[in-house]
């Protein structure tokens, strides 16, 4: 009898399909294979070698098996878990694991040339002599390298090859990643740092699951401490994974790693080419790449021997993926560590309430670094009550902030202005008729980007030239920009300090590792006096001469009023403040606000995080909100508005009736139109451990949802738009 297996393709299917195994193939669970599926041939992973129900007459045969190690059991269990918890098909999660199918093919051998062992008689010329000269050391070289080193053209080498003087060889390419040197010494740690580092190293050695929150003010040496635990993993030949929120911008972090360990880590982020990704994927699967630094998707790489996971800036909301498979990489990383029986360290100056709650429940360990390294002080924070300041219309910087900027520039120090708004102005309206320029695919205003001369939608990417006439009433030159974006602040500064060299830092102006590295160089060389940027500048940069941070509008993040608005604003303001005065020079922070009495502003102003946290926790607990309760968002969307209505009516009719679950909605989503899709939301709220997923699964299976309507489930939502 034929042998059968279940194969899961990386497609949005909830389960695998049964196939026959040809007699010449030996397969184990986890093997990568190709299978016929409909009229196509697709990739898949052997999920189960003992399928229960088999209808032999229908079965088709597996085509081929890839010559790579099988997907490890930990990865498979992780896929199952992520799929179950986030309510996405297993195959969709598998697709994140096999994000570069090209990696399954053997790497292209390298064609190199060397001098033949049996030299024929041949005519010698001076270019030929140069080629033989450089190959005399017996090290074969690629065509490109010979051409470059010997300064000859292609034809010279072709001639030598034809004459039988050179021979062609196929080499396996050299390893792409060097081994970081765990013996290299890091800095001498302070007593406080050393105690924590040694605990983290012990965890790595014990090789059991442990989750630890590593808290400490910016500059207290959190990075130095967790590098020690990476070092310990390396000592035992294990891999380490570090997730950073903005990996493409982490030039300083990478430099530090290289300085310490003698080589660069393997990188994983969306700016890599397919070849780079394939190389990294293979090296991670084979265990050759030891330290992997990446964006959230790196969590799904097929590590063979992972020894520790570090989540830097664990509170950062960019760990939540909002598109496609919706998941929280920080939370899933804890699960990955648990399944793999390894420690995980959640690092932050402002740990999330979720993590703090887990510490209080005794689920996570908690270590705290209390001093900034070398006695640097946290900056002094002043809150400016904008209600009492005179600022010309169309200007946004108050006299005290301008004074501080002036002093900073006079001392030849650097400053940073923070405003979490890209572009020139968030809204453009017509002075004649009041019409506001809106995206035609989304319910959002178009944002003016004056540098590009365009209006942009920040949600769908729609972009258009700025019209001269109002599209509504036709008045000419009547459109005006309302409110500030970073470009407008740059304009204001340029008008007041014409000699100051400033840079606007947003995802529009810095969008790759090279640009980020350039920026760091220019800041370090003090070619830039002032950075004006969005939350991108709040990330872990360390500039010794940066002594002033100005927050242009501290109230911005509090406006939407979602669940985490206060917490997030606190974290951002704290993080931005932490950029000032990280070395010998003391720093200061100036916060402009119209709400000086708001608890967040108060807490930042007097530096009382504990008080803020308890108040915030109290409110959340009283409302049964996370981390004390659980939320699930259900987003129903379609291009066909009427179909959405029908789906919502049916969903409403079959909604779970359960005393433990509170259902809010259906309501129009705040973004009721997004990329041309009409959207409605439900929000489910329950206590912890209610297994909401099971109830939702049942609900969605009985409700009638038209085919052209999409229902997205967002477990533990961060966005309520
Ligand atoms: P954090 O991650 O908490 O912001 P870092 O680890 O980046 O802090 O440390 C801030 C700066 O202080 C870095 O330049 C780091 O190299 C330096 N530093 C921290 N601890 C030490 C130490 N024990 N000896 C020497 N330099 C240190
Ligand atoms: Zn008009
Ligand atoms: Zn849009």
Mean pLDDT score: 91
Unreliable segments of 5+ consecutive residues: none
> What is the helical fraction, as a range of percent?
25-40%
In whole angstroms, the N-to-C terminal distance is 56 Å
Number of helices: 19
> Which geometry do the CA atoms define?
globular
Radius of gyration: 29 Å
Secondary-structure content class: alpha/beta
The fold-level CATH name of the largest domain is Rossmann fold
CATH hierarchy: architecture of the largest domain = 3-Layer(aba) Sandwich
Largest sheet: 7 strands, parallel
**CATH level-4 homologous superfamily of the largest domain:** P-loop containing nucleotide triphosphate hydrolases
Query: In the residues, how many domains can be counted?
Result: 6
Q: Tell me, what is the CATH class of the largest domain?
A: Alpha Beta
How many beta strands in the DSSP annotation?
32
Defining traits:
721 residues, alpha/beta, GIY-YIG endonuclease, Rossmann fold, 6 domains, 7-stranded parallel β-sheet, 6-stranded parallel β-sheet, 24% strand
